[in-house]
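Deliverable D4.2, example record:
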Amino acid sequence: MKIVSISARVVNAEMRNWVFVKVQTDVPGLHGWGEATLEWKTRSVAGPIDDLAPLLLGRNPLDIEQAARAMRKQSFWRLGAIGMSAVSGIEIALWDIAGKHFGVPVWRLLGGQVRDKVHVYTHLGFGDMRAVYETDSVDPLVQHAHEVMAKGYTAFKVVILPYVHAYAPRKAVNHVVQLMAGLREAAGADTEIMLDFHGRPGSVATALSFIDAVAPFDPMFVEEPVQPGDAVAMLRVTERSPVPIATGERLVERNEFEEHFRLRAMDIVQPDICHCGGPLEAKKIAAMAEAAGMGVAPHNPLGPIAGAAALHFAVSTPNHIIQEEMVGAVPWYFDVVRGPIQMVEGHWQAPETPGLGIEVNEDECARHPFAPEVYHTQNAVLEDGTIVDW
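Output generated by the structure prediction step:
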């Protein structure tokens, strides 16, 4: 069995473009699907998929470790987030092929089943990024929270931190307290609420000011309290925070994770299977996290193939805690990709269909061609004109 072609399909999902990857074998009818979505980098990711293809044509698709090594080691230049997203999409497709070839779900090949169901969470507003990034008053936040819980979710994440820099204005801190108080009252004591700081605080002190303010409302974790990549700053936050700290969605190379693990710089790691190299690399990162006594809560606000890959990873990963997902992103979500995701009482169920268990409707994909993604950075400017982290 050999790989004969690798190609990308771009599907515009209104607020973002999904980048699907199709790997075709020389066995009639046997192909695999992956996802390499990287927001606001759609055309940049589609190119490397074509660039990497010659390294794999003619190879056996079942030799996944070897294929991953070829893409990462024979590209010469460091791949970064864009190139590693392309690698991830291709690798996911290879796992889909392997599962279909052996007639088993991908989780069976990733180590087997360690749980029967997977706790999941979504964002307020589901796929509406305006609701995620542009809602800063109590009433609409509470309304969004009720809508999420009405669909059966028992956990959700919010981005309510204002745009700040190297210090935390008291007015801004007090406003976040009001928002969090309203959300906790609406959600009740048992619903998990996660806060994504989005790396907006420009200093450790700024991050801790907001963390201390929201701690009485018992968030499950605070995500990216400072900009990613600075393991020492993350460690300083984690050591002083009364709330668990999560990070990792913007780390793409294993050595970037290694320093964080060595320093015990966070409590929860968040690799993105579509950016870090695919399920094989994500499993290695999860094993490193387990050795460091950390849980895994993978990043995934992406498309339906990414969701399916995340499900198989979660079923087979012992230190998995909770899975981010975006199933309600567009009304036609399951028209483009029919898959194995079934949610019962806030949990995805373990699938039994071979491979990823998905069927991609390429005609439906073609009905949603590439369109420029909407930027939400217009408010990431302070009153004095300073551009800050979005």
